[in-house]
Amino acid sequence: MSFLASPFRLRRLGVLGMNQRNADFIMRYNPRHLYPLVDDKLQTKTLALARGIAVPELYAVITEQHEGKDLARILGDHEDFVIKPSHGSGGNGILVVCGRFGNSFRKPSGDLITLTAMQHHVSNILSGMYSLGGLSDQAIIEYRVKFDPFFEHICFQGVPDIRVIVFRGVPVAAMVRLPTRASDGKANLHQGAMGIGIDLATGKSRDGVFRGLSCDIHPDTGHSTLGIAIPHWESILRLAIQCADTVGLGYLGADIVMDRDLGPLMLELNARPGLTVQVANQRGLLLNLNQIDAMPNPSGRCRRTPEAGTIPACDPCWD
Amino acid sequence: MKNVAVLVWAGILVATGLGICAYKVYTLGMPVKADQTTAVWTVEARIGFQAEGGPAIVDLSVPSVMPGFLKLDEHFIANRYGMAIDETGDHRKVQWVKRRAHGAETLYYRISVAPSEQTALWQDRPALPSPPAYEEPYATAIRTIINDVRQESADVFTYTRELLRQLNAPQANQNVALLRAQARSPHEWTNQVIEILKGVRIPARVLWALPLNEASNDAQMVPLLQVHNGSTWLVFNPATGDPGLPANFLPWRIGDAALYRVTGGHGINARFSVTRSHRELLDVVRRGAELKGSIFGDLSLLSLPVHSQNIYRVLLMVPLGALIVVLMRTFVGVSTFGTFMPVLIALAFRETQLLWGIALFSLIVSVGLMLRFYLERLMLLLVPRLTAILVIVVGLMLLTSLITNKLGVERTLSVALFPMVILSMTIERMSITWEESGARDAILNGLGSLLIASLSYLVMNQRDLEHLMFVFPELLLVVLGLSLLMGRYTGYRLSELRRFRNFRGEAARQ
């Protein structure tokens, strides 16, 4: 353990840095005009629905401040839902409700939140508190994903999600993001969630990362996170590829959740996926990225011909 | 390839910027450091006389060609005199005329010069002199010397140098001693040398120069020898034989004609005084550039009105602050609130000085943050809440000013200009980061902003750097080029080296 890593060693291991991610991948492969498709979750959802991509059901959209007063009516009988900003980033502004208790609502942590507080939250969302640049926003009310019991032992509240990085239509890395007590049920590594790397070929978990450090035990439940086979792995990858094809972004992070009843659902897409997936996997992205970069038409080749073994990262090939 | 285009552009921009800068430094002599001064000599010729009631005419020779000097300004001061300047070849004369002059009259001529690199040359083309008929016993002596010198020289320059060496040798031979005895003053001595040079048909003349060594109220002209080598006039010191115009000698006039002449007056009294002063080197250089007809003399920020100048002094430093932000974000990976917020905070520090600025900033932000957390519980809409924070910030600044004023600290008067909008935005963003990502991130981002702001402040407050950007605004091109280059930096950030320090990196290839 040293204080700093040697840049040459990182380069040799193929670690992708923030500057290079921005300059060589995001700027080259993610045309600016496609950003709204992923930055606006409502648009993403609409587009996904049109293409038959599985997403959590949309209950309602709140666009105007005055609609906040009608929140109780808009919510109707839903007891179990998520309110989130359409333009949120980093998991900010997401309110998860998993039950009612009289006039209050229960959060997964067990805390209660009053209707007034919820109205204030909606109002904050609408006034743009969670959107980039503070532009006014919309609040989305949607189906709360019931997480697969599979994750029960390695998850503390919240919904774990699976982040798949897709480059030019080929999945290059994946990790599962597990909410922890520290992350307040959010599946965002930045906020203290745990990430575990997934072997793309087998769908089995390997190394993990928590608070920037290597870790293979869930900090809250104490269960080992090593060697877990993620269920429906192939359909998860398929979903990720489908998403990438739909929005047309070359370098994309697809966040997929596993619903107990509905299977893999696409939760949101990210045009600027972070670098932590490398730490979770203990593998650099760059070697795979460069290899795919050099191919004229990687996605087509990978999916149509069985010789895809040449791309280590996209081992799972179908059709 | 994009990288090549970036490199080419960056190269062109940096080279252009540095090129213009180098031209201004080396050709025009613009000072690189702030507050550089140069010695400026002011020579005043004062001619006083008693007018006889009739018409008075005063002629005065004034400097024309001044190698090694730059004329800053020139004044002709005379009470109700008509004035004409007569410039023929290397001679320059001023003539003052008055129809009726009574009593004591005084006329002044004043010139200010600064040492410079400029090399003006005398233009007159002399006729070849015919050898004079020397009188005995000097004729024999001169002929001997002429022949001796001819043996040991090759051209006009070496001939003159050798002649002067022999004439000024410490152990003079008979011939030289004879000639020396004849000359009783430096002027006569110079004329004698000119006579000898006529014998070998070398055109020569006297150049009168004023030594500018120290302030003096009665400076005397010193005669120097000029010989023409067929293309240009060379200068020698007739008393030592040293070639070239001695340092700090201001060439004033040429030839034997009188320095001044007064008609219609008596009791003439002419005095030359020399004073030395210091002037901003930049002013002197700009004057020189203007005289040279260089566009950079005129096309300078210094020609703007002073209040615009002061704005540009600050404005031109902002790109440097931004450069610091780029460096810290791209190479180090410090996170901040907003991209250029730190530069704005740094600008605010200019008003308060660094330590005060940091103290005030921290104080106002932390108190504002506490109040902001209370506002959160009141569940206000975004824009009214921002307004509330703005009001609170202004109130806090007011309070700090009042308290520090009571305590007798003067600094805070300038706090009034501490940009409150920046503070309000910082508070708002910080509180959101606090809520969403935790106190750690909020404080880290706050410290990051403060760190970059302090660094930017330190850079932006370098007096020499400010002078550099202001006098050489083309350095903006260099900054632009550098930012292009940094825009293609795809290496790791320092923070990433730390972040990935425990990276084991299991075989990347499966």
Properties at a glance:
heterodimer; A: 319 residues; alpha+beta; D-amino Acid Aminotransferase, Chain A, domain 1; Dna Ligase, domain 1; 2 domains; 7-stranded antiparallel β-sheet; 4-stranded antiparallel β-sheet; 10 helices; 27% helix; globular; disordered C terminus; B: 510 residues; 3 domains; 16 helices; 12 strands; 48% helix; 21% strand
Strand order of the largest sheet of chain B: 3-6-1-12
Q: How much helical structure, as a percent, in the residues of chain A? A: 25-40%
Q: What oligomeric arrangement do these chains adopt?
A: heterodimer
What's the N-to-C terminus distance of chain B?
32 Å
Describe the structure.
The complex is a heterodimer of chains A (about 325) and B (about 500). With about 325 residues, chain A is of the alpha+beta class. Chain A has two domains: about 210 residues, ATP-grasp fold, B domain (D-amino Acid Aminotransferase, Chain A, domain 1); about 90 residues, Dna Ligase, domain 1 (2-Layer Sandwich), CATH 3.30.1490. Chain A is built from ten helices and 14 strands. The longest helix of chain A has 15 residues. The relative contact order of chain A is 0.16. Chain B has about 500 residues and is an alpha+beta fold. Chain B folds into three domains: about 180 residues; about 70 residues, no CATH class; about 190 residues, no CATH class. In chain B, a hairpin with a 2-residue loop joins strand 4 and strand 5. The longest helix of chain B has about 40 residues. The model of chain B has no long low-confidence stretch (mean pLDDT about 85). Chains A and B meet through helix 1, helix 2, helix 6 and strand 12 of A and helix 13 and helix 16 of B.
